[in-house]
Amino acid sequence: MNLHDHPGYVGTRTLMLALFGPSGTPPAWRADAACAGEDTELFFVPTTTAEALDVCAGCPVIAQCRADQVDWENRTRSRRFYASGVVGGTTGSERNQTYYPRTTTRKEVA
Ligand code: SF4
C-alpha cells in the first residue's frame, strides 16, 4: 500500500503542515526534547500535569518549545481559546493567561 493511499495520511499531513509549516517536518530541536519517548497522554491528562511539568523542567529545549507553541496557538483565535496540555513547561491555562490575555472590556449599558 502506498503511504499516500493510507486513510490517515491526509489527516496526518494536514496536522504536520499546521504544526510545522510548509515543510511539514518537525523542527531540529525536537531531537533533544525530554519528552521524546514519553506517552503524549501524560501531557494532556489533568491528573498527570505535575508529572508532565517535571519532565519539561529538565528539558534542554524548553524555550524553543514554548516559543513555537505560543507562535502556533497565536495564529488563530480558537487555538488561543482552547490552549491545552502541558507544553514548554506551561499548562494551557497558563499560556492563555500569560500570552493571550483577553483585551476586550465590557461596555457600559446605560
Ligand atoms: S519543554 Fe516539555 S513539551 Fe516541550 S519538548 Fe521539552 S519536555 Fe517536551
TrEMBL record:
<dbReference type="Pfam" id="PF02467">
    <property type="entry name" value="Whib"/>
</dbReference>
<feature type="compositionally biased region" description="Polar residues">
    <location>
        <begin position="92"/>
        <end position="103"/>
    </location>
</feature>
<feature type="region of interest" description="Disordered">
    <location>
        <begin position="86"/>
        <end position="110"/>
    </location>
</feature>
<protein>
    <recommendedName>
        <fullName>4Fe-4S Wbl-type domain-containing protein</fullName>
    </recommendedName>
</protein>
<feature type="domain" description="4Fe-4S Wbl-type">
    <location>
        <begin position="34"/>
        <end position="97"/>
    </location>
</feature>
<dbReference type="InterPro" id="IPR034768">
    <property type="entry name" value="4FE4S_WBL"/>
</dbReference>
